[in-house]
Amino acid sequence: MTAPRDLGSIKRTMQIILSGDYATFFLIAGPCAVENEAMCFEICEEAALICSDLSIPYIFKASFRKANRTRHDSFRGIGDRKAKEILKKIRSTLGIPVTTDVHEVKDLYEIETFCDMIQIPAFLSRQTDLISAAAQTGLPVNIKKGQFMNANTGRFALLKITRTGNMGALITERGSMYGYEDLVVDYRNIARLKSDAVAVIMDCTHSGQRPNTGSGVTGGSSSDVEMFARLGLTAGARGLFMEVHPEPSKALSDAQNAVELAELEGILKRLSAFGEAIAPFI
């Protein structure tokens, strides 16, 4: 395992992301949820190495708890304290910024000890008290745009952050639900939100979900991840979000949508080249 690093590298990475001082895009990637320490380190170390080679700023993502589940018996986490300790260890040992979901205002307690950017889940993107409290921590806040929101309503969610004086407002496009069992991405949302946020992020994983399956487990496919990324970058996205797992079929959450870790390097190399090619036109 890598030796502990200077945490100044985390601050520098976040400054680069918030200032927009990077060539093509930044990456938020990791497992849907913290399953165990070894897996989190495996994903973060591999993703960080790839991103370093490609000069892509990288933030590790994993939820310490999953609250928005369809079924009562779906995996929700390994316990808040244990999961948070793993995130703290990732951050302090590898010197990589970390982001995680918050579901309640009380989740913000001690958030700065293991988190560098707060993520608001899509189903909570209208929760004013939660968004305002997250913004008041002073940390950047990434709102996952709800499946029921367009660019106009997304702007009001961002305003809940900026009105507190927090200028680190980001928003993630993850598709809209027009039918009962599928999502459709309107890439106009990315173009229309560009001027309202530090960055618009394309969620290449959840945009491929097929919610509300008969089993109560969300379906989907990871085969469109690269396509979502290319289209998002073309529309003006500055960040990409991917859930990654060493063995997606064994993932305890969002198994059908995760990118296999072994495929991540090839995907990012192709996307980096694509981003450089289109940069003069966007």
What is the β-strand count? 11
SSE order? HEHEHEEHEHEHEEEHEEH
- Numbering strands along the chain, what is their spatial order in the largest sheet? 1-2-3-4-5-6-7-10
Helix residue percentage: 25-40%
Describe the global form.
globular
Biggest pleated-sheet summary: 8 strands, parallel, barrel
Taken as a percent bin, the fraction of beta residues is 15-25%
Report the mean per-residue pLDDT as an integer: 91
Low-confidence stretches: none
Write a brief structural summary.
This protein has 282 residues and is α/β, with parallel strands linked by helices. It is 35% helix and 16% strand.
Describe this structure in words.
With 282 residues, the protein is of the alpha/beta class. It has helices at 8-19, 37-54, 80-94, 128-135, 151-162, 188-193, 225-235, 261-278, and strands spanning 26-30, 58-61, 98-101, 117-120, 141-144, 169-173, 199-203, 209-210, 219-220, 239-245, 259-260. It has an eight-stranded parallel barrel with strand order 1-2-3-4-5-6-7-10, surrounded by six helices. Strands 8-9 form a two-stranded antiparallel ribbon. A hairpin with an 8-residue loop joins β8 (209-210) and β9 (219-220). The radius of gyration is 17 Å and the shape is globular.
Structural topology:
Blueprint: H1 8-19, E1 26-30, H2 37-54, E2 58-61, H3 80-94, E3 98-101, E4 117-120, H4 128-135, E5 141-144, H5 151-162, E6 169-173, H6 188-193, E7 199-203, E8 209-210, E9 219-220, H7 225-235, E10 239-245, E11 259-260, H8 261-278
